[in-house]
Each structure stands twice: as structure tokens, then as C-alpha cells.
Design brief:
By secondary structure, the chain is of the alpha+beta class. The chain is built from 4 helices and 9 strands. The strands form 4 sheets. A 3-stranded antiparallel sheet has the order 5-9-8, covered by helices on one side. Strands 1-2 form a two-stranded antiparallel ribbon. Strands 3-4 form a two-stranded antiparallel ribbon.
């Protein structure tokens, strides 16, 4: 676990240094009131935003210019009673959608919802201070988000994408839109050097 933590932090710094003329060791971060790391230095002309996620040896890093971003990756082979988790945390319409699926598909769709929810609360920078049942997703093309009255937000402000980078993982991204545009998310694979 410590190795994965170090790889994640090294990835964060090296990726940021690809976008700005800053040495990886010079980046400085502070956490916001909800625990999300924010770039605080050094000053650059680029308003870079970054978010990280990791699961069982898979690390995801999302970088954008001047946009809020959130990323989540989960291992779909993780054990547990997924419908019970959904009933406890998901919006009722998501639970109904899961229950309507054949059992063989429920696991994958559970992780679609879970990663999308995590990517949104991470993009907002508030984590689980935002109740997961206060918003729901409609899976499709495009993916749509719906908010309960308790959570004022504009669905048009957010863009979501789902990926299956390998058979064991589901990855979701959330990016804020600028003036209603659509952002292209590009996945790149990197393998850290082994010592």
C-alpha cells in the first residue's frame, strides 16, 4: 500500500511537470476543508487541476486546464453485497435500475454508478460531504446526472465518461464544462519503473 501511495504521488508530480516548466519535486499541495489536495505552488501561468484515484495496483490521474476534474477507478472483482451497498447509498432510481438488470450485469453497472458518483464528488472537491443519494445517473450516451432539490447544481455544467481500461477495472471521469463545450478525455497508459 505504501508503494502504491508513493507511485501515485510521483505520478501526480511528474504528470503536472509535463504541462508546466516546474520540476516534479517543486510542486506544493494543500488539502481543502474536505481533504482534496489542491496545487498551491509554485505559481504558473496555467490554471492546472488534477485528481487521482487508485485501486489494487491501478492508478488513475486526470489533469485539465481551468476545469474542475474528478476521477475514480474501482476493481470490479471486489467482493461484497453490492445491492445492499446500493440500497444504502444510491438514489432510489439507481437501485431500481440495478434490480431490473440480469444478475450477470448488476456488478458492472453497480461499479459504473459508483465510479461516476465518486468522480462527481471529487470534482466538486467535497467528497462524502455530498450525500450520494442526492444525485443520480442515467447511463447511456451521453451519461446524464440528475440532482435532488437538496443539492443545487446544474446538470449541464458536468460531462461524464466511463472506461474499462482492463477486464478488472472501471474508471469514470467528471469534468466541468466551460460555456457548454465538450472535452475529449484521452487515456494514456504508463508503467512505472520497477526497482
Amino acid at each position: 500500500m505504501r508503494h502504491q501511495y508513493l507511485v501515485t504521488r510521483a505520478l501526480q508530480r511528474s504528470v503536472l511537470s509535463r504541462y508546466a516548466a516546474v520540476a516534479p519535486c517543486d510542486w506544493r499541495f494543500e488539502t481543502n476543508p474536505w481533504g482534496r489536495p489542491e496545487i498551491v505552488g509554485p505559481a504558473t501561468p496555467l490554471p492546472l487541476r488534477i485528481n487521482l484515484s487508485h485501486a489494487d495496483g491501478f492508478v488513475a490521474c486526470l489533469v485539465a486546464l481551468g476545469r474542475e476534474v474528478g476521477v475514480d477507478v474501482e476493481n470490479v472483482e471486489r467482493s461484497g453485497s453490492l445491492l445492499e451497498i446500493a440500497e444504502r447509498f444510491f438514489a432510489p432510481r439507481e437501485v431500481l435500475a440495478l434490480r431490473a438488470l440480469p444478475v450477470a450485469l448488476q456488478r458492472y453497472h453497480f461499479f459504473d454508478y459508483w465510479t461516476l458518483k465518486e468522480s462527481y464528488i471529487k470534482a466538486r472537491g467535497m467528497g462524502l460531504a455530498i450525500p450520494l443519494a442526492d444525485f443520480s445517473f442515467e447511463l447511456g450516451e451521453p451519461i446524464r446526472i440528475r440532482f435532488e432539490p437538496a443539492l443545487p447544481d446544474d446538470p449541464a455544467r458536468w460531462q461524464f465518461q466511463l472506461f474499462r481500461p482492463d477486464p478488472q477495472h472501471t474508471l469514470a471521469t467528471c469534468v466541468s464544462r466551460l460555456a457548454g463545450d465538450t472535452t475529449q478525455i484521452v487515456l494514456r497508459e504508463t508503467i512505472p519503473l520497477l526497482d
